[in-house]
Amino acid sequence: MRYLSKALVVAVGLFSIGVLSSSVSANNLLEGSFKLERPIQWKSTVLPAGDYTFKMTRTQTDTNMLAVRGQKKSMDILIFAQSACEKCKSGELQLDVQGGTRVVTSLELPGFHVDFNSRQSPAQREQQMTKAHAASEQVAVHVDSN
User: How buried is residue 75: exposed, middle or buried, by Cβ count under 10 Å (0-12/13-18/19+)?
Assistant: First the structure.
């Protein structure tokens, strides 16, 4: 009888670990990588040239967390529900070149579009997205398949 209760406790424990580990991985929405040939400014953080990985995970609220990790620098960005985008299918960072400085103005990932240039109205941002900007660059973002 005592052996049966220990076996039951172990079985329930292993089952719980399996359920919890699958729910943790289900919180990952997107994962991928990108390479920066030159340093960039992303919000208030300067990311040096190098290889980066990212992971977007669900949070307890209506926001998602984008974690960007590199060898020398890391940053976390909250992605709000308003950033959902049905037209967005690819992955890219849009950069404005201002002198020798490259500044991230937007990020597109499958299902998400986030603008970081908050001084523009939504109409101005839409217009900027549809035309090629002479002083802009794109960085390809590789999104891992689920």
Answer: middle
φ, ψ of residue 116 in degrees (nearest 5): -110, 0
Cβ 107 vs Cβ 47: under 8 Å: no
As given in the structure block, the two tokens for residue 9 are 């406790």
Check if the beta carbon of residue 110 is closer than 8 Å to that of residue 88.
yes
Domain ranges of the chain: 29-143
Tokens of 23: 């729910």
pTM of the full structure: 0.70
Q: For residue range 116-125, what is the model confidence (pLDDT) as tens digits?
A: 875 555 565 5
Distance, CA of 102 to CA of 124 (rounded, Å): 20
> Which residues contact residue 48 at a Cβ distance below 8 angstroms, ignoring those fewer than 6 apart?
36, 39, 70, 72, 73
> Which segments of the chain does DSSP mark as H helices, in order?
2-26, 122-130
Q: Are 44 and 118 in contact (CB under 8 A)?
A: no
